[in-house]
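dumping this here before i forget
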Amino acid sequence: MKMHNFNAGPSILPRVAIENAAKAILDFEGSGLSLLEISHRTKDFEAVNDEAVALMKELLNVPDNYKVLFLGGGASTQFLDVPYNLLEKKAGYINTGVWAKKAIKEAKLFGEVEVVASSEDKNFSYIPKDYTIPTDLDYLHITTNNTIYGTEYQTDIDSPVPLVADMSSDIMSRPVDVSKYALIYGGAQKNIGPAGVTFVIVREDILGKVSRALPSMIDYRNHIANNSMFNTPPVFAIYVVKETLKWLKSIGGIPEIERRNKEKAAILYNEIDRNKLFVGTAAKEDRSRMNICFVMAPGYEDLAPEFLEFAKSKGMVGVKGHRLVGGFRASCYNALPKESVEALVACMQEFEASHAK
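structure:
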């Protein structure tokens, strides 16, 4: 039976990236050594790192005054690193869910934090709008896609202060005007690689302005000066990022993957809106293309466990909603083929046919 991987992360990767990584684990570039045991100081791995950086810059049209870093620690460590490097007096945060709240908690350790807008009043089911960004902020932080609640910024916002974005779960899924951001970061394990590596895209002129002393590992400038090799980088994960970005470029880059992602999302949202048994949970204008969240419709709530078992029997993997919200979540990241979405829709239709009143 074919399996359809809707896991929220670590998530589906392009098959070619997995196959090439498997080969490199056995023999890296004909060296006779495994990718898992090579030195990161070799010219061969430096070439891997350089290619991954170059592909990030090319695919996202990153301006020349930005640096791309590959670091350890996950996006959760960036919740700390960002304010440590950038927060002098006051930072602003848009609260759109669990991950934004975690970032706010860390920032409060370093200075005043103003929650400029929040969607908590409606259980994070929408993206806040019609708010004023104070001009006295050191930076404004947003989370562009909210994996748990299924909401996503559809466009890049304009900010009068440096804009920082956690793009863990929608990076490379749509065009981004990097010049509107001072810093973009995220875990790789949704769209660009496996768990274990974090990307940071940072405009250099925002660094070195806080008065506090920075620990060596926290200071972005040390990682820039050492080309992400201030300490041993996550070698394997960076290799898979490079292979994943090569795949993305080969299929037509960001424009093509956005087209595919729009198509996949439309197929599934259309079924959710049509099907008597299901209802979407996010405001329609803010629906995520990456994490499509839905629940049983009123009157059918008791069928949720049965549907999960039915979906599992049809090869659907990872469609159970996050433990904080329940329901269902189909994560439709870049590497997920349209055929998997169509298989889930067929599954929903079959379940409806046997259970609708």
